[in-house]
Amino acid sequence: MTGLVRPIMDKAMTAPPIRKILVDTDTASDDAVALIMALRSPEVRVLGITVVAGNVPVEQGTQNALCTVELCGADVPVFSGATAPLARPLEDASWFHGRDGLGDHGYHPKTRIPEQEHAVDAIVRLVHANPGIEIITLGPLTNIALALRADPELAANVSRCVVMGGAPCCEGNVTPTAEYNFWVDPEAAQLVVRSQLPIELIGWQLSRHGAVVKPRELEGIPTPFAEFALRSNDTAAQAYLRQTGEDGIALPDPTAMAILLDPALSIVSSQHYMDIQTDDGITRGMSVVDKLGVADDARNRALWCEVLDRGRKHTVVWEMDVPGWKSALVRGLS
Q1: Dihedral, CA atoms, 73, 79, 82, 84, nearest 10 degrees?
Q2: SS3 (DSSP) at 94
Q3: Which of 18, 38, 230, 282 is at a distance of 20 to 30 A from 3, taking alpha carbons?
């Protein structure tokens, strides 16, 4: 008996601890798939889901998050947050995800309701109660910016902040220069990237080309999770085809979630200062990365002094393991 017990005990003692995460989202079709991956993962424990206005109004995003939690049979609180960007009206993405964000198929929660606590208060509370927590943001950074304003010490308790946002090396998905999450609330994005949060930036370009998921790659998975992923993203897939000419389902938020769950999926990354353009011109929301390390040069320092003096270098993921990403998605939906 002793010989059988010891290997089991040794395995239990060497198993990595379950990581605690907080998900901030503007729940639309790809966000929902990312939530499924997190809620069903044995690697992490989701302490809370905070919702921000973005792809859809915050009330709709909250309902979509609750619906996804119900689908997974999870006991995770959902908190509703900011109803609009910091300094401008909301411009949603119903043109891409449908009016309800989930392809307009009538999805809604049957019994779950949101918590009474505001999302920003929940972020501050959960971070302080769980030092070392990891945060992943899937939408505009309004809630996170407000939490940083409310508690300047917040960043010190966060071990990792995976941000799905920006187009650090290419065209944007809503303008020629900007990705939607940063474009819709550039003031919040700028505040967050100028903070001390340990950001790991997952730009939208990582979900393109070879990372685009063909429906046939998921159609053979006999689960309600895969069925939901395909159906809720059918409107988005049509919009993506019109936008880029690429046929399939682009899933920016699940790619970010896959990298949060398995950091080894990030195969090329580097650390840089970065900033976000907040002007209302053609570069609104542009993610500017100091890839050559010239921000501190005499000719640039005056414009970069806020970033250099108050911010930090952040990790930018340039390439991911595409087969590994697709395997992670299939596991999450199986």
Answers
A1: 30
A2: helix
A3: 18
